[in-house]
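BUG-460 | component: ligand-complex export | severity: low

The export step for iron/sulfur cluster jobs runs without errors, but we want the raw record kept on the ticket for reference. Input record follows.
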Amino acid sequence: MRVVTLTSEDDYEGWRDAARALAQGRVPPSEILWQVGDAPTDLFGDEAVLEPAAPAAFRVPRAFLDLAQSVILHSDPQRFALLYTLLVGLIEQPRRIDDRADPLVRRLEEMAKHVRRDIHKMRAFLRFREVEDAGTVRFVAWFEPEHHIVRANARFFVDRFAAMHWSILTPELSLHWDGETLAEGPPATRADAPEGDPIEEMWKTYYASIFNPARLKTGAMLKEMPKKYWKNMPETALVKELVAGARARETAMVQTARDSVGGNIAGAWEALRDEAKGCTRCHLHKPATQTVFGEGPVDARMLFMGEQPGDQEDLAARPFVGPAGQMFDRAMAEAGIDRSGVYVTNAVKHFKFEPRGKRRIHAKPDGGEISACRWWYEQERLLIKPEMTVALGATAARQMLGKVVTISGARGRAIELAEGGMGWVTVHPSFLLRLPDKTRVEEEYAAFVEDLKGAAKALC
Ligand code: SF4
């Protein structure tokens, strides 16, 4: 048995170097014991593994290294061994990393997703409290992560709160920033962190001003935000009161949200996109790889909305990059529309599919899923304010119009939208890909191009 001792729970470099040497020696996963300790002694219980008799070096896909960097931060003690098992498998089958039906790949992807979510939670739910520290002001926050994400998140807090002196206390370690240097300290307990303080009222005021009733889903909120986070957040005391007046505030909020970003639309869009990465408003986030947000210039005059990401979009985290996206690009070029000048998004931001063997087969989102995801589309519209929104297919048309319509009944004419601007309905390019008859494909493709031209012309 080889024993590998890593220096810390998030010691990615230690794991990577050891795993590389062991895999070169083709050491089976069952012969390795991974452990975390204070001293990096005894990196290998059996030094023979490092002998140059090992076979030639091998290459692993970049995607595996990205996956490993996230999975290492997971709290599951099995993570080192699981990653190593996949690494050894990739030597023989480098494409295995792309096989979303592979149980090991899926398990590791799921772990990486939990880590990403924990990183997001720390950024979203951590709250600083002001304390006097030797005549200077210091901000201190307490946070209990589920995974080993504190170091990985440090850069985010340094960048965001560069001008403040702050400390983040966690049960695993503490971080201290003095405006110039980031230092690590020992683990802390909740008792080390201050309770309520003068800026608590400011937080409450701020929260009340940004409270967003359109996103309100108290059941999911409680599930997503465990009570340990609620205790850290002064604004939670306001939730009950705010919920009571939610509907009345929603309309006013939607009208004023765009003005409130102080003209920094691109910054607000980036914040929105980052927030969507942690969305759990519906169950579709669970099997999908990641949120696929819209993309394009934030001052675009035209917004194109498809149904949902496909298999390739789900992996690339970009809309319209798969076969339907390529068909869309071609039609846009023929219609004389500059693809780089428009904003493209989907009615539903996570890939819905049914696993079938090694493949993931597209599944149509239902009404509940479309409604759950409407929030993100509304926010994209609020920021971009497109003069023309083109709905590609029935799901997008339903999202745009807030009701079920048939493509044949709504197609090819400008529709005034209640929230401003015009709408236009046409088919989704994947419809063209599914047609079995070549002549029909040509006819429908020509009609699709004409629809796109019509939408562009209606803008002039
Ligand atoms: S599909 Fe939309 S609402 Fe559902 S989890 Fe994804 S982003 Fe959130």
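Assignee comment: Attached the raw record above. The chain has four domains: 2-120, 126-192, 198-256, 266-459.
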